[in-house]
Design brief:
Strand content: 5-15%
Radius of gyration: 17 Å
Strand order of the largest sheet: 2-1-3-4
């Protein structure tokens, strides 16, 4: 195991990136100090260390790793502090399942469609597509239902302690909640709403994402 207290930790990404926020939450939960180097693939200039020109990338000493789920698992294993993954098979399976749900079914409609167009582009005065926002809202409903079921079940998203599942899902759902219609949709799911209230007040979320 590498000594996180000795080797420099550098995170390449940009604060507005949801997946960068995921890694920042994991680092905050573990109490790991790091240097942030802004790398936004959407901006002109030299590309960062990611071979496919994406973010985030974590550099720990001379060890570099990319792909968000791999980074957060590495952070949990490589550094002291609270464990971000349970030890029992059921909770670990649900954690991996929720992370996969977030990547495959939540991120695109909730972030790239609803949030990016209905919040980011709209507030910036950039052309935004109302139809894409509506598509995102429609596609998000079954995702919210499943996440609510997971939160109700109690293996993960249970409001007891921060896990890798919380780190992965919270920035996406919080971004979606910035849309008034998104907030109303989330409010229909009691377990998910309680979890979101808890996680957005956690130290890890406040340090990584802010209020």
């Amino acid at each position: 195991m590498r000594d996180g207290a000795v080797d420099q930790v550098t995170l390449f990404g940009f604060k507005e990136s949801i997946y960068t926020q995921v890694v920042m939450m994991a680092l905050a939960a573990k109490g790991v100090a790091f240097e942030m180097k802004r790398d936004n693939p959407f901006e002109a200039g030299p590309s960062g260390p990611h071979p496919f020109a994406r973010v985030p990338v974590l550099l720990h000493g001379e060890f570099a790793i990319y792909e968000t789920a791999a980074i957060t698992r590495y952070v949990d294993r490589a550094f002291d502090g609270i464990g971000l993954a349970a030890e029992d098979a059921e909770s670990l399976a649900r954690m991996d399942q929720v992370i996969a749900i977030a990547d495959n079914y939540a991120y695109w409609p909730m972030v790239r469609q609803a949030y990016a167009h209905g919040v980011v582009r709209k507030q910036a005065g950039i052309d935004w597509d109302k139809a894409l926002v509506q598509d995102g809202l429609r596609a998000a409903e079954p995702v919210l239902k499943v996440l609510d079921e997971m939160a109700s079940e109690g293996w993960v998203l249970n409001g007891l302690r921060i896990s890798l599942a919380d780190c992965h899902v919270a920035p996406m759902v919080a971004a979606f909640a910035q849309l008034p219609k998104g907030r109303k949709m989330i409010a229909q799911f009691s377990a998910l709403s309680c979890w979101l209230e808890w996680v957005t007040h956690s130290r890890a979320f406040r340090q990584a994402v802010g209020t």
